[in-house]
Amino acid sequence: MAVSSDESPIRIYQPDTVPEDARVAHFDELSDPAKERLFMLVSAGADRGRLELTTATELVQYDLVKFTDYYCVDFA
How far apart are CA 42 and CA 24, in angstroms? Predict the structure, then answer.
């Protein structure tokens, strides 16, 4: 499968702790594409994936995203 140049590899994981000063986005605050992709990754139990650059950039601007638990999304 070809990889689009507008996609970015990401890493998603549950942190051991949640710092008090963490920038947290709640699932319902995300754009629809970000919600959809985060849901797909978490449901699949994936710790890595590829996201459209716009979606990846939206998710990594936060320290954590609160969904069913806290998740950290970083560029891989």
Answer: 17
